[in-house]
Amino acid sequence: MLISCLYTDKMDLFLWKSVCITVFKKIFYIFYFIFPQSCFTIGVVKTEHRGDGMDNEQLWNKFLTQIQIKILQPFSFNSWLKPTKLLGINGNSCIVEVESEFQKNFLARNYTDLMSEVLYEITNVNYDFEFVLKSDNHKEELPQNDRVVETKNLGKSLEIEHKKLNSNLNPKYTFDNFIVGNNNNLAQAASLAVAETPAHKYNPLFIYGGSGLGKTHLIQAIGNFYLTNNPGKRVLYTTSEKFTYELVNAIREKTNQDFRNKHRTVDLLLMDDVQFLATKELAQEEFFHTFNALYEAGKQIVLTSDRLPSETPHLADRLKTRFQMGLLADIQPPDYETRLAILKSKIEDEYFTFDEEIVEYVANNITSNVRDLEGALKRILAYAGIERTNTISMELAQKALKEILSTLPQRNITISVIIDEVEKYYRLPKGSLITKKRSNDIAYPRHIAMYISRVILDESYASIGDAFKRDHSTVMNAVKKIKKMVTEDTELQEIINELVTNIKKD
Question: pTM of the entire structure?
Answer without folding.
Answer: 0.51
